[in-house]
Every structure is written in C-alpha cells, then in structure tokens.
C-alpha cells in the first residue's frame, strides 16, 4: 500500500490541482492520503471569504483521509475552527480554546482501518518555535481565542487512550523539523512521522516533509502477515495535468468568494503606491494604526503592499493589495534604534532586496515610512517627532507590525514578543475602519521626508 502526503500548501491551489489529479488517478481504496496542515492561508481570497470552509471542502474532495491543524488553520479563529473540526477530519491533540478547554468535536487522533491494519494517526499543531520557546505561537493565537499546548503531554495522552487499539502509529506533525527530530528519538513506537511547518524538503528512515506545496510525498509500505515495513519514501514533483473535477469545484468556490468579498467599502478616494519612496498608501496605513493603537509614532515598510489601492475598494481589492497576515504591533525602542533603521532604509540596494518570512506575503522590503507627526531630513539626517528632535537615548513607543517587531528586515527595531502588544485584526482588515475617514486621508497627503535642510520645514 501507499501513503500519500502533502504539507504547507498555503492555498497554492495550482499545486493542489496537480496533486489532487495524481491522487485521484492513483490512490487505491487500501491507500492513505494525509496532510500535515497549513493548507488554508488567509492571504487567499477563497479562504478569506468564508474562513476556510471552501478551501477545506476542496481539499477533502480528493480522497484526503485526515489533516493536521496548522497555524494557518488556527489563524482562522475559534469560531471557524470549531465549525471546521465538526465538518471535516481535521485533527490536533494539542489545540484548545483560549481558556485551555477542549473544543467540542476536535479529536487528537483518528483511527483508520486499511488492509485489515488499524492505523492510528495522531496530529500536532505548533507549540515550540525553532528556538524551542514554549507557547511561542500563543501570543498571536489568543487573539483568536485559541491556544496550543505541550506536544509531549498531548502525545502521551493519545498513546494512553489508544493503548492496544492500533497496529501502526503515524504522527502527523505540524511542529517543524526541529521538533520532529526530537519526537523520532523520544518515541520509537512511532512508525512514521509526516512533518510540516518548517517547509523542509527532508526524508529520513521513517520521516517525510515535502517543502511548501511543491512536492507530493509517497511512502511505499509492504504488509506481510500484518508486519508492516517501509519500503521507500520519495518526493514527486508533479507536472501539469488536466483535472476537470478540481476545475469545477474551484470555479464554484471562487465565484462564491468573489461575490462575498466584492461588496464596495466606502472610501474617501484611491491611495497611490510606490515601493521605494514615500507614498500615500503607506502613509495612510501609518496614520491609521497610530490612531488605532496610540503611541509616539508609526513605522511601516512599503513592501507590505503590492500596488495602489484604487476605488471601488472592497475586501477583495484590499486582500490583493495587502496580502500579508500581519497585525499592528506596539512596543518600545530607543531613538538610536529608529535612527539606525532609517539609515538602513536609505540604502537603495537594501530596500530592493527580496524578503520572505512568517506572516509576510509580499516580495520586497521597500522603503521605510512613518506617521505624519514625523519629519525626516535625509541629508544630513535629522528626525523630529511632534516638532521635537529625536533623542537617541530616549525610549519611544512605536506602532508597526509583527514582521518588523521580530527584526526580520530592520534588526534594530527587534524586540521580544513579551515586550509587545498586538491588535487582533490584520492591517488590511483594520484599514476598513479608516478608509472613509477624511482626517486620516488628509494626513496621508502630508509629506514626511525631505532630501535636505532647505526643504525640511515644508509640508
């Protein structure tokens, strides 16, 4: 028999079309197909429209036996997750609601009988990050009334509850390779681990993780007198193939999502965008998040947007313009750290670099932009905040987003999660509240950067 495996598709439906065609054609009744999570990504309009319902319907239309809950499924929030786990075999042994209580209908494992073999599949969601910090994802998940818990305790519970009830144990782990290597050593009774989350392309004696939606994992098992042996583990890169069933379902879900998201949002006007210089759209975002969360100033990188936001504006055009899943974030940094970031942003080669990381769905770093109470003379460098010169030794409360807060693109602006607070909405969702705000729109037109001191006092 074969076990087919996908992980971290992140709503890459072009890949899933190929994978589902292959599985539909090749998977036999005695085979298994398992997914390690992060199938549904909110950067995709189909996922955004109905919080994952259509995406999961698409996934389970192609012989999928079970899926682990990844952090991207958890990003959908409690209401969506509690609905989906009662509709699909979506499993995790270490997810609770925001108070630590069990979610009704959510199972930590699933028992599947194939070839007269009882397969027990235990699933895990991420809890430790790559630095092994416990509860690292809960800072964000609690905004959606969800938590993940210790995976070792979760595995022990599932093993105890299923003692003597299975012949073959599979761990469907959305925990990252760094954790999966520990699970392999700690739990020799696990026969196969199918990993995800860290986007590694990795094969070991009883382990497979197949990147980020570019490969299909295929595990060949031999069964002789109920003795099961892994014959081979392989990753298959798939070619384009006709898939009429996929096309039909996808079109139906796409049309539904478009109808849901296309309702016009009242807005003062369009907002223009430039990636490598000050522009109205990013100015608008800065002034919006500063009004929303309060602080001394707002800082934003232009790479968060793809293009101008043009009327008529809808949730669909907002998603297309700002696909990143980033939350407005408030924390303190020294004035010297702000000056270091501004100096780095003046390096044209640097701001044109590609960038990629957790939650960020853009492609470049882009210029660094600020709220309207900030004035920057670029040559020689001089910065004022509310008409007072920036003090290098003073601490300032900035409002930015979690990608910058983690130091991903401007290292001097990094701070630990414990020192930050996050808004529960993504930046694009928060913008809806301000698009018809004339005051914020007027402020977005105020110039913040000047090339030299001759022009520094102008607005």
Q: How is this structure best described in words?
A:
The longest helix is centred in the middle third of the chain and has 18 residues. The C terminus is likely disordered. A six-stranded mixed beta sheet has the order 4-3-2-1-13-14, with no helix packed on it. A six-stranded mixed beta sheet has the order 6-7-9-10-12-11, with helices on one face. It has a five-stranded mixed beta sheet with strand order 19-16-23-18-24, with helices on both faces. The relative contact order is 0.12. The protein is of the alpha/beta class. A hairpin with a 2-residue loop joins strand 11 and strand 12. Helix 10 crosses helix 16. It is elongated and about 85 Å long. The chain is built from 16 helices and 25 strands. It folds into two domains: 256 residues, Purple Acid Phosphatase, chain A, domain 2, CATH 3.60.21.10; 193 residues, Alpha-Beta Complex (5'-nucleotidase,  domain 2).
Write a brief structural summary:
With 459 residues, the chain is an alpha/beta fold.
Strand order of the largest sheet: 4-3-2-1-13-14
- The CATH class of the largest domain: Alpha Beta
Spatial gap, N to C terminus: 70 Å
Q: Say what the CATH topology of the largest domain is.
A: Purple Acid Phosphatase, chain A, domain 2
Q: Got a strand count? A: 25
Strand content: 15-25%
The profile of the biggest β sheet is:
6 strands, mixed
Instruction: List unreliable stretches of 5+ residues.
Output: 454-459
Shape: elongated
SS element count, helices: 16
Assigned CATH architecture of the largest domain:
4-Layer Sandwich
What value does the average pLDDT take? 95
Structural class: alpha/beta
Give me the Rg, rounded: 24 Å
Domains, number: 2
The CATH H-level superfamily of the largest domain is Metallo-dependent phosphatases
Helix content: 25-40%
């Amino acid at each position: 028999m074969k076990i087919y495996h996908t992980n971290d598709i992140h709503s890459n439906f072009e890949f899933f079309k190929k994978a589902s065609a292959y599985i539909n054609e090749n998977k036999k009744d005695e085979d298994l197909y398992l997914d390690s999570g992060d199938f549904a990504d909110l950067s995709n309009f189909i996922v955004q429209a109905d919080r994952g319902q259509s995406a999961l319907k698409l996934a389970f239309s192609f012989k999928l036996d079970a899926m682990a809950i990844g952090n991207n499924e958890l990003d959908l929030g409690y209401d969506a997750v509690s609905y989906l786990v009662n509709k699909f075999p979506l499993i995790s042994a270490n997810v609770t609601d925001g108070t630590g209580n069990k979610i009704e209908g959510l199972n930590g494992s699933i028992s599947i009988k194939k070839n007269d073999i009882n397969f027990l599949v235990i699933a895990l969601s991420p809890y430790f990050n790559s630095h092994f910090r416990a509860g690292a994802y809960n800072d964000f998940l609690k905004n959606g009334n969800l938590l993940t818990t210790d995976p070792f305790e979760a595995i022990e519970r599932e093993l105890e509850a299923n003692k003597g009830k299975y012949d073959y144990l599979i761990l469907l782990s959305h925990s990252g390779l760094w954790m999966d290597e520990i699970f392999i050593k700690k739990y020799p009774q696990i026969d196969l681990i199918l990993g995800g989350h860290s986007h590694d392309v990795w094969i070991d004696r009883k382990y497979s993780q197949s990147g980020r939606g570019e490969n299909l994992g295929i595990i060949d098992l031999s069964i002789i007198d109920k003795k099961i042996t892994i014959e081979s583990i392989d990753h298959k890169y798939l070619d384009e193939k006709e898939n009429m069933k996929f096309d039909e379902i996808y079109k139906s879900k796409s049309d539904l999502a478009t109808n849901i998201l296309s309702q016009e949002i009242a807005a003062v006007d369009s907002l223009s965008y430039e990636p490598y210089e000050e522009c109205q759209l990013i100015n608008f975002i800065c002034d919006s998040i500063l009004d929303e969360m309060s602080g001394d100033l707002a800082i934003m990188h232009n790479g968060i947007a793809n293009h101008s936001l043009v009327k008529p504006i809808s949730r669909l055009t907002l998603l297309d313009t700002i696909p990143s899943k980033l939350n407005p974030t408030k924390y303190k940094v020294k004035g010297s750290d702000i000056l270091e970031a501004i100096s780095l942003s003046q390096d044209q080669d640097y701001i044109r670099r590609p960038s990629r990381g957790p939650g960020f769905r853009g492609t470049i770093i882009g210029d660094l932009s600020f709220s309207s109470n900030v004035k920057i003379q670029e040559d020689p460098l001089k910065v004022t905040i509310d008409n007072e010169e920036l003090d290098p030794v003073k601490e300032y409360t900035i409002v930015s987003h979690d990608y910058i807060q983690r130091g991903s693109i401007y290292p001097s602006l990094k701070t630990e999660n414990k020192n930050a607070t996050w808004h529960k909405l993504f930046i694009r969702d928060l913008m809806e509240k301000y698009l018809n705000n004339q005051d914020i729109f007027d402020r977005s037109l105020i110039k913040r950067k000047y090339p030299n001191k001759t022009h520094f006092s102008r607005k």
